[in-house]
Design goal:
This protein is mostly helical. It is built from three helices and no strands.
Length: 73
C-alpha cells in the first residue's frame, strides 16, 4: 500500500505526531516520577508570560525551577 492508497476521512484523519508519541511503550526506561499538585502564588505578569509561550506552560515552569535547583547545588 502506498500513501496515495490511504483515504483520510473525518472518522479516520491523519495521525498527529503528538498522539503517536504518547502511545510509545517505555520498555526498559525508568518510570516517570509522579508529580505533586501544589497551590503556588506567582506574579500575574510572570504567569501570563509563561502562558503566552503556548501549551505546556506548567512543564516549562517546572523546568525553570529544576534548572534553578540544579544551578544552586
Amino acid at each position: 500500500m502506498t500513501d496515495e492508497d490511504i483515504q483520510l476521512t473525518p472518522e479516520h484523519p491523519e495521525a498527529e505526531l503528538s498522539h503517536i508519541v504518547k502511545g510509545i511503550a517505555r520498555r526498559g526506561l525508568k518510570p516517570v516520577p509522579a508529580k505533586t499538585s501544589v497551590s503556588l502564588r506567582i506574579d500575574t505578569d510572570v504567569l501570563e508570560w509563561f502562558k503566552a509561550q503556548g501549551p505546556g506552560y506548567q512543564t516549562r515552569i517546572n523546568a525553570v525551577l529544576r534548572a534553578f535547583r540544579d544551578a544552586s547545588v
